Amino acid sequence: MAKIGVLGAGSWGTALSVVLNKNGHDAVVWSILEEEVEMLNTEREHKEKLPGVKLPDGIVFTTDLKKTVVGSDVLIMAVPSPYVRSTAHLIASMVKDKQIIVNVAKGIEENTLYTLTQIIHEEIPNATLAVLSGPSHAEEVGRGIPTTCVVGAKEKQTAEYIQNLFMNEAFRIYTSPDVLGIELGGALKNVVALAAGIADGLGYGDNTKAALITRGIGEIARLGMAMGGKLETFCGLTGIGDLIVTCESMHSRNRRAGILIGKGASMEEAMTEVKMVVEGVYSAKAAYALAQKYQVDVPIISEVNKVLFEGKDPALTVSDLMLRDKKLENSSANWE
Ligand SMILES: NC(=O)c1ccc[n+]([C@@H]2O[C@H](COP(=O)([O-])OP(=O)(O)OC[C@H]3O[C@@H](n4cnc5c(N)ncnc54)[C@H](O)[C@@H]3O)[C@@H](O)[C@H]2O)c1
Predict the structure, then answer these.
(1) With contact defined as beta carbons under 8 Å apart, do 156 and 175 qualify?
(2) 149-187, pLDDT tens digit by residue?
(3) 197 and 166 fall within a common domain
(4) Cα–Cα distance for residue pair 222/277, rounded to 1 Å
(5) Which of 143, 254, 284, 301 is least crowded, fewest Cβ atoms below 10 Å from its Cβ?
(6) Is 123 in the same domain as 10?
(7) Residue 277's pLDDT is what?
(8) How many angstroms separate the alpha carbon of residue 20 from the centre of ligand 1?
(9) How confident is the model at residue 250 (pLDDT cuts 50, 70, 90)?
(10) How far is the CA of 82 from the centre of ligand 1 (A)?
């Protein structure tokens, strides 16, 4: 059995530690927040973020970074994306050569336009990196509801090793070499989920949602492929799969923030009300900058940026999207 150090004791870090414990591994979970660790050790439940999920005694919660990192077979990076660089920086000197670090966070860094494994690689160049992603709300994984994810890594053996650590009858893991495609799907879907939430907040229906999901995955795939990701990845669990769950579920903080914005709240008000890091807001600017860099047309991502950062009326964005230039649905399916 392996010793796994989990960085981040929020919803996802805690839910994954429950899976790892169930699979017989020793999970040591670190949080930077002393009061969170104290609460978890006393209550053995994350009442705010994972209510109803009992945390077995075998899971250790600590603020001691050394205890979490040193001697661990694998590290899981489970802090919200804006903290990935600072957390990677904190652990860099403790990480052994070729240490496997699995990034499970989703986002793109605004000023560098780096994906999260690119950030971790910059901070810890001697680590072996992998990514775990897919349609997987922590609230359901913690309760053992059947869920599927994908582990991506450059080396097949790394991906298969991580697949074996996590896989059980309620948590099915596939493998893939397309690390970039997996990470881009996970980060960009949060921006489209904001749009889906905005449409819900405006009172629109299932037709609008289906349009946003379908046209949204088109944008994600076009941009992702221009950057080097694979079409099949965007058509799979970490692309369309994660986009569907995020646009449909009330567990999604991005969708919830979007609903508030659609009902008239400002971005700041929505972020305060949701009380968690709304990663789509951070990734939205980066997504638009990437689209400009790779010259890809991303009308939904562009309108989300206008609502978030230029104060555009959400209702106007929908009519602007509807009345854009007339187009073919798919430029590769054209008449001779
Ligand atoms: N929640 C989910 O269902 C889910 C599923 C898949 C992926 N993810 C991804 O996992 C990542 C973590 O998500 P989450 O839902 O656990 O978030 P969360 O908001 O629940 O995590 C907050 C935790 O981050 C840690 N933290 C807070 N401030 C920090 C700081 N300054 N430095 C380092 N750590 C700090 C603390 O342990 C805190 O509890 C995100 O990128 C998210 O997109 C989440």
Answers:
(1) yes
(2) 999 999 999 999 999 999 999 999 999 999 999 999 999
(3) no
(4) 27
(5) 143
(6) yes
(7) 83
(8) 17
(9) confident
(10) 9
Dihedral angle, C-alpha 277, 279, 284, 286, nearest 10 °:
110
pLDDT, tens digit, 9 for 90 and up, residues 84-116: 999 999 999 999 999 999 999 999 999 999 999
Work out the pLDDT band at 331, boundaries 50, 70, 90.
confident
Task: Please indicate whether residue 156 is annotated as part of the active site.
Answer: no
Task: Return the ligand 1 atom nearest residue 190 CA.
Answer: 43
Tell which residue, 55, 27, 25, 51, has the closest CA to residue 40. Answer: 55
Pocket of ligand 1 (CB under 6 A): 8-13, 31-33, 36, 49, 78-81, 83, 86-87, 104-107, 136-138, 276-277, 279
Tell whether 227 and 307 lie within a shared domain.
yes
What the block records as the tokens of 312 is 């555009």
Note whether residue 336 is domain-resident.
no
Question: Are 52 and 30 within one domain?
Answer: yes
Q: Which structural domain, as residue segments, surrounds residue 272?
A: 180-322
Question: Does 327 map to a domain?
Answer: no
Question: Measuring CA to CA, which residue among 53, 49, 103, 59 is closest to residue 79?
Answer: 103
* Catalytic residue, candidates 49, 189, 209, 230: 189
